[in-house]
Give the backbone structure.
Amino acid sequence: MPEGRIKLMQGNEACVEAAIIAGMEFFAGYPITPSTEIAELSAAKLPRIGGKFIQMEDEIGSISAVIGASLAGKKSMTATSGPGFSLKQEGIGYAIMAEVPCVIVNVQRGGPSTGMPTSPAQGDIMQARWGTHGDHSIIALYPSTVREIFDTTIRAFNLAEKYRTPVILLMDEVIGHMREKILVPNKNDIKIYNRKKPTSGPKDYRPYQVKEGDIVPQMASFGEGYRFHVTGLVHNEMGFPSNDNKVAQNLINRLINKIENNIEDIVEYEEYRLEDAEEIIVAYGVTARSAKSAIDILRDEGLKIGLFRPITIWPVAQRQLEEIAKKVNSILVVEMNMGQYALEIDRIAGKYTRVGKYGRVDGELVTPEEIVSFVREGKDCQAN
Amino acid sequence: MPSQLIEKYFRTNSLPHIWCPGCGNGIVLRAIVKAIDNIGIDQNNVCVVSGIGCSSRASGYLDFNTVHTTHGRALAFATGIKLANPNLHVIVITGDGDCAAIGGNHLIHAARRNIDITTIVFNNNIYGMTGGQYSPTTPTGDKGTTAPYGNIDANFDLCELAKAAGATYVSRSTVYGANMIIKQVEAGIKNRGFSFIETLTTCPTYYGRKNKKGDPVDLIRHLKEISVNKTEYEKLPEEKRMGKIVIGELYRGERPEYTDEYIKIIESFKGEI
Amino acid sequence: MAYFELILSGSGGQGLILAGIILAEAALHDGKNVVQTQSYGPEARGGSSRAEVIISDSLINYPKVKKCDILLSLTKQACDKYINFLKPGGILIVDESIENKLEREDIKIYSIPILHTAANKLGKAMVANIVALGSIYQITKIVSKDALENAVLKRVPAGTEELNKKALEEGIELIKKYKDGLYGRVC
């Protein structure tokens, strides 16, 4: 056992530990259950490493400060829950448009509105995808264990830096608050990606031009001598507002394609007992843990069933899901909502196989037993 | 030929600006760069942050590190920038709707923290960019497209608000007196803390027309007539104070600056690592 | 022991979530897999609070307790609320101050003076959670004593180490004496 690296760690704590390893130097937040520990731990840890924490006056203020700090060159993060996530959509849209790397953690709780502050829910799947207005693509990750919170937090920063985009880390209340065994990886084994700095001098710098061989424009920080302009308006390669239709179409295409054309790099998933499976469950986060137990029980009964667990929830693992759909009798999507991801799975797999859904929204987890009995009964959809 | 000031501090390729003929915003913007020039700060160390509205378009015209943010959030973005890199001189350009309505919360909290940001409000008493709706500084009784029968809201005294919230430099000026704006912006930048400068500017297209206040020159003349310097104002008898606007340096305070205080916390851990 | 589930319940502020964390850390130290969760209402103090701990030799998927092997209840409200989580044959540890007319006859009950011992014998009501941990240990031996003691010392405030060690011992004693029939009844 590697001494000192096996720890009992809370999910929210693992998020902060990992963020710091990923290079987080700035956190702005606003208190909200059940994500508050992320702000508290950031407040305690950041000044000790020369980083900065600020509790802003509101949720929009925090995402705004995070974007500002990222423009000044610091890897930045904020954390919230449903009600705050709604408010932060304004800033998320800005970060998409202005291509500002940042990480937004949403430890979900029951909704809509104030909902159930201390109860788990997976109701923000579609809001993570389409929460901010306008056409865009998004990266959203969804861990299912405390150790995976650690890994996906680092990955969230890496993807944000690599693709110059906000990355959303969706978490379950249960896993955020849960303490679990975690083997903290060796620092030298962790890959850290930093935004690509300009290769040209200030005179030739075109802040929104993608250079050959790059995925995104090279990014200078404020104060480095590159005096560039950043705006949420449609802008040209120099960063200045433009009403040109061609400029607008090209920009939106580029912002979407930088993600959609790199799905294979961005998408991460787990396949559990899938080899010979004829029935498939799709589940993510804490619900996937229940699905695994259910699959073990059903396998013992002789049912050939397996799990596809997206870790990158957006963009969706379209190719992999299509291939699976072509081979199986049915796909059941289990989630703690009324069928949000099921919509997306049905879009992809519905033409090849039967897609069913099971969910609950009462503030309790889906248990392995209820999945087992639902599958045994062979229903396609939740009865109530 | 553009002036040397414009050559040096404006992105001439992003001009002409979008402001209407007779708009006062240009006067304020020139005063800001003149103040920066007078102090002699390296352009690379200046960051201008603006929100949404007519005045907030200014950031794009200026050759500094510039951000045109979302509506009302300039001060929140600026707070992140300043805290992340305290070496930057952060200047916020905002309007009355941007900073007193949708961004009002950020204004009072930036002032409360006394973070070293110089905020210049271009107060034209109206929402110009969206076509003349009444703002938190539209005088009671005046008209806007959303106050067709006269505004029944009381209007904010932004300087009193900033002072009460904790700003350590507060002043007011008008586009009639460009030199006063320059002096105030200089003083604001030099103040280590939150500086709030309200500059009354003119909107002939919407505010002026809607309220039948005459042409651009009439509007500026009106500003001259109603504004009184603080020292003179204090000598005026009560009955003569009515309808006057006090200009000049209104308040100075001494309080610890936010990023300095945060750095002290960081320093306290220095031996530990 | 393949899969062992505990619920530690009482009112907010009694330190039961901390007790759950300590127990989980001890189990971790013993090389077990462990998951600790909690449920609570909006109250920081008062209200009912529960910490859940699952200790297992194998991987733990579903993170919440379904049916527990041990239920600790320091208040009547918590006992009433969670009693049905207890498995047939499970063990209920209740504070002696709780008057219980339980309908269940398929469980084993230890009614012991946890709160009294902490407040009067040890002079600090706040160590009740550690006393309870001592009792849980003595009944279940679910974790090793070394691991438990280390976990307690790691989590308690500096300067209270001796007091907490004593609290742990007192909790153990409560059960030892209980077997001698000094307190309560065993169903």
